[in-house]
Amino acid sequence: MGILGKARAKSPWILHFDAGACNGCDIEVIACLTPVYDVERFGMMNIGNPKHADILLVTGTCNLRNARVLKNLYAQMPEPKAVVAIGACALSGGVFHECYNVLGGVEGIIPVDVWVPGCAPKPEAIIEGAVMAVQRMQERASGKVQPSEDESEDEHA
Amino acid sequence: MNPIALGALTLVIAPILGGLLMGLDRRITARLQNRLGPPILQPFYDVGKLMGKQPVACNSFQGVAASLYLMTSVLALLMFVLGQDLLVLLFVLALGAVMLILGGFSVKSPYSQLGSQREVLQMLAYEPLLVLMVVGVYLQTGSFSANSVLALDRPLLLTMPIFLVTQTLVIGIKLHKSPFDVSASHHAHQELVRGIYTEFSGLQLALIELAHFYELVLLLGFVWFLWHTNWLVGAALALAAYFSTILMDNVTARMTWRWLVSFMWTWGIGLAVANLAAIYFMLRVPR
Predict the structure, then answer these.
(1) Considering only CB atoms, which chain A residues are within 8 Å of B48?
(2) What's the pTM?
(3) Residues A101-121: what's their mean pLDDT?
(4) DSSP, res A106
(5) Tens digit of pLDDT per residue, chain B (287 long)?
(6) Which of B35, B52, B205 lies nearest to residue A35, judging by beta carbons?
(7) Is A31 an 8 Å CB contact of chain B?
(8) Is B37's CB within 8 Å of A3's CB?
(9) Are the Cβ atoms of B205 and A52 closer than 8 angstroms?
């Protein structure tokens, strides 16, 4: 890992997208920024801008309205990047899975690197997921792993 | 010292010093918010990471704007260190700021557009104070050159005390600190996302960050000027001004651009002009 790799590992900027969660997961994501958990220790910042972001945190189910927005945000993030799906809804659709407008989890819309299960997951689990996403991003940047959806099965957190 | 060696030394040391000060800023901000905060070297990690990102640009002018912003910041600092004309230095600095604004305007994103418009207003707020400080130097030395200040045998602060306050405000506006962060926020995002910086990404943003390192050293250099006779006192003044802006950032909320411009044009310029008038009528050195 060269200087560039170290800098990348130390400065992951986060974009948080609420695709349609009940806000439970979002509260837990925001809790990571508070003095108790303080993810800025790891250089993480909630940057709110896809063009500056390295890690996309997605909460909530995808539906016909927001899938386009999610794809757009993902496309606007420059490589290397990683996606973390947070909470039962982002994993599979959760309790909303059978709703007429719900497409299911994030997986079908954009490639996901790390899954963080829970309803809602604890901030500790979200931080661990983000740290795993950083490792994943490192591997991809160094050419060990190609960006593809099919081999992410072993990354279930 | 040989001017070429001094210039080369400045080119290397200034970004290191500026980056460390910015890292210290993030650490102190975190401690003020009862958090642990990132490592002191965080700004360097950020710049390094941004340099390694995939290049994405909306148009070819964005890259030109970011590089010109960096080049003018470096040039302005070099002019300062080599004792050149302070008025020309301010014009070079303003040219860089305008380049950044044009870069923001070159993209059709509403965040970038609105951020650029507000950045023009921020320039309107701080530029007169910088020029008035240089006028104060002229009134006492009869020259706009930075070297003429070093030739003075007494500190400028004794005759220009108000400019320590206005220079602190200028640093706050230049670094986009609260309550002056109308066009973009220094650390986090606000209602314009990242304002003028929204559409710059990857290497372009890294160049802009690097320019901020140089610019911070230059702005603190202006404060240091107020007590040039003893460099330790000057450095202490510069650090005090810098930490005042950090404290101000953490205890105030953002105000509107209307407040910013009217505050700086009444209190800021009013006090500065009063100080200049006092110098003109009472303390003017006969020549």
Answers:
(1) 3-4, 6-8, 11
(2) 0.90
(3) 90
(4) S
(5) 788 999 999 999 999 999 999 999 999 999 999 999 899 999 999 999 999 888 888 899 999 999 999 999 999 999 999 989 999 999 999 999 999 999 999 999 999 999 999 999 999 999 999 999 999 999 888 889 988 888 888 888 888 899 999 999 999 999 999 888 888 887 777 778 788 999 998 899 999 999 999 999 999 999 998 998 888 999 999 999 999 999 999 999 888 999 999 999 999 999 999 999 998 888 655 55
(6) B35
(7) no
(8) no
(9) yes
Compute CA distances B148 → B33, B98, B139, B156, B233, whole Å.
43, 28, 11, 12, 19
Are residues A7 and B36, on separate chains, in Cβ contact within 8 Å?
Answer: no
Tokens standing for residue A123? 């901030």
DSSP letters for B14-37: HHHHHHHHHHHHHHHHHHHTT---
Task: Yes or no: say if B97 and B238 are a contact pair by the CB < 8 Å rule.
Answer: no
Closest Cα in chain A, distance from residue B46 (Å): 6
DSSP annotation of B281: I
Q: How far apart are CA B10 and CA B74, in angstroms?
A: 9
The structure tokens listed for A58 are 């997605």
ipTM comes to 0.86
Chain A residues inside the 8 Å CB shell of B32: none
Tell me which chain B residues have a C-beta less than 8 angstroms from the C-beta of A7.
44-49, 51-52
Q: How far apart are the C-alpha atoms of A116 and A128, rounded to whole Å?
A: 9
Classify residue B193 by its DSSP letter: B
B54 and A79 in contact by Cβ < 8 A?
A: yes
Burial B173-197, CB ≥16 within 10 A → b, else e: bbbbbbbbbbbbbbeebbebbbbbb
Q: Six-digit token pair at A152?
A: 């992410």
Q: How many CB atoms lie within 10 A of CB B285?
A: 11
Distance CA B199, CA B205 (A): 9
Report the residue count for chain A.
Answer: 157
What are the domain boundaries of chain A?
Answer: 10-137
Which CATH number fits the domain A10-137, given the four candidates 3.30.9.10, 3.90.25.10, 3.40.50.12280, 3.90.1150.10?
3.40.50.12280
Query: Locate tokens 């794809």: which residue?
Result: A71
Best residue in A1, A4, A6, A10 to probe B by mutation, most B CBs within 10 Å?
A10
Which chain A residues are closer than 8 Å to B44 by Cβ?
7
